Amino acid sequence: MPAENTPSPEQLAAIVAAVELTWPRPVVLAEAEPDPPRWRFSGRWWVRPVPSRRDRPW
């Protein structure tokens, strides 16, 4: 390699810094925890319409 193509130490530092900034880094993705089961309101007494809840149990 001819001497005129050799970068100066400042140029070499700038090149290395640019490569470090632009080079993609490996990313480790942790497996997400599954969502907890959701509590459902189906079949509960308060889900029925108000007029049907006014019925007397006797």
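Above is the first protein from milestone M3; the second protein from the same milestone is given next.
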Amino acid sequence: MKPIRVVTQDFELLTELDRYTSAIVERDWRGVGELELRINRHTRDAHLLQKGVVLMVGGDTSKVFIIRRREIELDQDGKASEVWNIRAPALKSILSQRLTLPPSHTSYDNRQGPAETVMKHYVERNVVDPDDSERQIEKIHVTDNEEKGETLQWRSRYKNLAEELEDQSKASGMGWNVVLNIAEQRWDFVVLEGKDLTTSQSDNPPVIFSPQFDSLKSMNFYEDDTDYRNAAYVGGQGEGTERRFVEVGGGEGLERYETFVDARDVDEEEEDEEGEDQPRPEEDIIEELENRGERELRDREQEVFLEGDILQQSPFTYETDYDLGDIVTLQNKDWGVTIDARITMIREVYEPDGFSLEAVFGDDRPTLIKKIKQDMKQSSAEVRR
């Protein structure tokens, strides 16, 4: 069993646990992820598993979780269960405790640049060096900016910071995490870039997940274009014939799927340093509307979902040949399916009878809750200011 270190928020090692019932480590490239630990309540040092305690899996400073929920039940006879169920989201979940507050002189916090620059900007402004010192989390440190990733143009206002980082990750392909920096006694916010391991490149040894290559035990393939859209009309401010519109995307005939994006919140004016409203350059307005439309189309791409159980005795070694965030080739010759996709989630399952790996390639299949959240985001943009 993989040892789990129990550490205080001040880096004091309390104990190391390796006698537990099961542990499921969910690593998420875009979102937060979670550790679910089941352990007998009589196990030595199990009483140290208290809310707020940090758990580090196998001494890996990038696999760090913080206990938020402890659960134990009574059985039907009223007797206490022997097993604690511990739920610990990844340490980076602490960023969900902050909203993205705009500067005092403007309605939105706008940032444009490489994805890493944009992502680190919002963490810096709302966690590391906020205007209100009470919002600061002193343990968090933003690592040096290497300006990695494609250019993003982003605006945010009172959004959940972790959810904004997830959306920025989806838009750019970059990952993010909060890792332990034991030497400096701090929690480092990092932006990550996966490797291209597909068969179409020659810089890295390719990784092919396929039942025919003895690298996948099982494979679940799902594709759906019910919500697919490839052309967007984006409406900015104005009324009737005076309203500003831009068009992004394209397609012809039966291959054209249109949608409307209400972007009335994109300002035509901006405040200067004296707080006076000034007209924005028209090219900036159009660029922002186009970016809004392109983001909507990315969210409405054809949905292809792949899940699989990875064979432990496969030709490829986890965390050596491939890891979370890498882009790999998936193939099932019997189904006629070959695609390249990023590993966006990995579940490490530790049980007394062995270890197994489950992976999600590309987007996870949307649940009803995810669909509702997506619809709510669109609806919020349609509210007039």
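Note on the second protein: The two ends are 55 Å apart (CA to CA).
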